[in-house]
Amino acid sequence: MKTYPKLLTTALLAAACCFFLGVNVSRADDDEQGGDIEGTEDLHIEMQMTPTGAAPPGSSIELQLQADNEDGTTQVELELDENGLPAGTFTVSVTLKSNGSTVQLGTFTIANGQTEAEIKFSNENENENENDGDEIELLFPANVNPFDIATVSVSNSSGMVLFTADLTNVSTTTTTLTANITGKPGPTDPSATGSAVLNANASHSRPNGSLQITGQGLPPNTPLKITINGKASNRKKASTSSMGTVNIMITPRGKTRTIAGGVNLLQIKKVTLTNNSGNVLLNFSF
Description:
Blueprint: H1 3-28, E1 39-48, E2 50-51, E3 60-70, E4 73-83, E5 88-96, E6 102-110, E7 116-122, E8 129-132, E9 135-139, E10 149-155, E11 161-166, E12 174-182, E13 184-185, E14 193-203, E15 208-216, E16 225-228, E17 231-232, E18 246-250, E19 270-274, E20 280-285
Parallel strand pairs: 7-9
Antiparallel strand pairs: 1-3, 1-12, 2-11, 3-4, 4-7, 5-6, 5-10, 8-9, 10-11, 12-14, 13-20, 14-15, 15-18, 16-17, 16-19, 19-20
């Protein structure tokens, strides 16, 4: 009689472990840029924030975002150069591409008589809050993935939004995204290796650049299918060589300058090489 409760407890614990393991795996491969990658990824964005009707006349904010990810360790600096804000406390918030949620980064205060200020959110700050004249340094929250930021807003103490910025709108930004990602082999060919090198840029225009994929140790003379974010790439034909290697260059095409259906170079999250049977040969997470 005492055996059954122990077996039940063991089963429940095992199920719980499997559940949490599944949650952790899904978070590590959570359909967003940045995060737990194998390789390096660098993002730089510059733009003027757009004033709303509530913004003080003559005021402006210039935004710069620099994020560097090396094997899952991210360094980030979000800088806001404001000019013309009145004395008061202001809140900086972001929305995320992955789930649309809004996250508050923090608040900063403009003193009486202060005409301009440089506000920096960084995860390298030694002090959580530091105000040195016109330079205000704040800690960038650890729970925010800078590669996942869609919009940034600045509000006053009454909650009125004064400035907004859409980081995904390439017509209003100067953006560069570079990456060198190590591929993960599929289960049918665990000895396969490869890399994906991304160079993308946009300056108030549609993204340009290229994605180059190389692979070794793959099945020889095998036709390949390439998907990007789950959609077929514009590179329709590719195959491995007689030595089991592959070298593929993908560049934007058409008026929309995309590399797959609705996907441009700045939006890459995952690239997968499969054979005609649907077996994954190499997988790259950005």
